[in-house]
């Protein structure tokens, strides 16, 4: 009897232990996977905040100008202040600008004792990645600051040529603050097994296991970490990635003896990083033991009596209810955090849509502004154009009256001569009217092959009256076969703007002169001929006026900047012209001539045979 009772008790306890072990370990795995998913979303949100900063900064004209002229101290001071403000606004650790040799020419900490300015970072992999034309991402210990950070880098291009690199360094402390609040030990390792971020401060920049010589040599070359501190953490059987069901590992913790953990991992949102969780198993073992003892007590209670069985069963049910309630609270917390992340993603999507709509509205506004500027230009030319029409009209009236007189006398030859003169004058007026109608209509938003010589001729026809009235000598040197990528009406608008400005600049000059030249040029760029050189056209408008001061050159293409008297201009002409040329895939800039006067230069892509029109925004 006693043997049978003991056998029944042992069997009940064995079955209970087996079932409880499977259940509680599965719960532990599911809780761990939920925790890893949660921290993976947190890391993804953190990295998404900073990933786009370097590509945005690389498009800034001040950054490009600083790399073009690294000796310009005023420009570098301006960029230093801009980088400092960006860093403060975005919450980044540091932002700095490297030239094509990896030397720092500007930095957000330019005025700090540990300034990066002048330091050589060409050895850093993020510099090599950016110089190869892609977004660089890299984690390392700062060689100057000694602080850990994640680096984003992006190439700065000038006419498709990489002239430098923008780098944004982000502190890892925000992520570690999140990791430190986890139940269990949560940390992140890189490909080499180095712990780059951890909730525990004594595990940071240590390793999962001892590094081999190749890994240590690679870290030494890039000076990524301090090799002397790269010691393994005191956790046995720890691997770079855990099995799907997790793995049991142990930590020797001194006075408390060995601690057992369930090791789970998943790929982090950052390339090359692995997210790890060491979930303590002490509570699980306690739960398994408790369940086993409860089952044994229940079996013993069967032997001792129905009353003891009922009491033990009620206690077990209460504990299961409490455990279920705790699990439900955890699931509600996870659901709430997931809802917050979903709301953040939805807000980000709305922001992206708003930015796309804003860009569309900006292009529409620019097109309308160009049309308004053309009509304003026609208004400014109205007096001269009125003279262009009134003079032929007066001549036509005189020739008509003479023709009637000669006809009355029977002099048909003189009558025919007067009628022919009338026909030539009407042709001249019709041609001028055709130019005006073409210039006034709204242009198409496409880029297509345009005959440059014909465009110059039609533009000058509209300003010819102003040129003659000002007594300006105008010369044009443009081969008849030059074809460029652009829009004929918009390019006419740019030329009329530049020639009109040149006439105004030459006012008061004793012998005003304006020269328009167009030549072929070759430079490194996107489209190339059979010999490997890019075919571009350089169009210049030069005058012999007083030239441009340094202050004017600095703000020349800013909207609403004008050197004319109030009421004689809105200051939008050059800004609009700059954006028109940029839409063509070209570049407009200004400078002073060596022998006096100003020079405006336009670099345009030469049209290739059978080249198709391209919508704005799809230029290569």
Could you please describe the fold and organization of this structure?
By secondary structure, the chain is an alpha+beta fold. The protein has three domains: 2-51 and 183-285, Beta-Lactamase (2-Layer Sandwich); 53-172, PAS domain (Beta-Lactamase); 370-380 and 443-615, Heat Shock Protein 90 (2-Layer Sandwich). The protein is 51% helix and 20% strand. The protein has 15 helices and 19 strands. The strands form four sheets. The protein has a six-stranded antiparallel sheet. Helix 1 packs antiparallel against helix 6 and helix 8 (282-304) runs antiparallel to helix 9 (306-380). The protein is elongated, with a radius of gyration of 39 Å.
Question: Topology, please?
Answer:
Blueprint: H1 2-51, H2 53-57, H3 61-68, H4 73-90, E1 94-99, E2 104-107, H5 125-131, E3 136-141, E4 148-158, E5 161-170, H6 173-179, E6 185-189, E7 195-198, H7 213-222, E8 235-236, E9 247-252, E10 258-267, E11 274-280, H8 282-304, H9 306-380, H10 382-409, H11 412-440, E12 446-451, H12 452-470, E13 473-477, E14 483-486, H13 488-505, E15 513-523, E16 534-543, H14 550-555, H15 573-583, E17 587-592, E18 598-605, E19 614-615
Parallel strand pairs: 13-15
Antiparallel strand pairs: 1-2, 1-5, 3-4, 4-5, 6-7, 6-11, 8-9, 9-10, 10-11, 12-14, 12-19, 15-16, 16-18, 17-18
Helix pairs in contact: 1-6, 1-8, 1-9, 3-4, 8-9, 10-11, 10-12, 11-12, 12-13, 13-15
Structure summarized in a few sentences:
With 620 residues, the chain is of the alpha+beta class.
